[in-house]
Design a protein that fits this description.
By secondary structure, the chain is α+β, with helices and mostly antiparallel strands. It has helices at about 1-15, 25-35, 50-55, 65, 70-80, 175-185, 190-195; strands spanning about 90-95, 105, 115-125, 130-135, 145-150, 155-160, 165-170, 195-200.
Amino acid sequence: MKRKYITIVAAVCALFVTSCGGGWSAAEEELINSSRMSRMRVTTVDNEADSLLLRSECLPLTAREVASPIFGRLVASMVESVNDPENRGVGIAAPQVGVLRRVVVVQRFDKAGTPFEVYVNPVIESYGEEWSVGSEGCLSVPGLRGEVRRATSITLGWRDPVDFEPRREVIEGFTAVIFQHEIDHLGGVLYTDRADSVNEE
């Protein structure tokens, strides 16, 4: 059993982490290009290989990688995937579509029109003093919901996807919760790890 686990981990790392010349790996390019700007398959804990991938640490993106057409196709597909009418979400992280890179798409409920926005190499720099418990679900953990304690405000740092310049913003309310959930994914953490309780939907 242990040998099988090591073999699967090695295969996942070879496919998704090892990059060619510091850029996108051949496997990443193949996966992203195969989506053709449409929805990508969402990885779930029900699948053994997916589950191992979802528990992996994501790599940061470089300015060169963000400027590439591959990145544009990836984020377009992530937006399509999170807006799937049959399984709609409010945020998605790259590992949820099989790509171990530090990028998330979050719906900004705190902005007019509640747009989906892209955040490269996001980091929570600090948490507010107030915390609350709320219900969460996840596209990668189907059929379950949990009660999770989150900060009601955060200071977020990230790289702009257009010019790669550093950005910083204080974010509050439900949108702050979404960011905490999605950034957890980039470190291989699922909401179920933080939940006080988890129940079937």
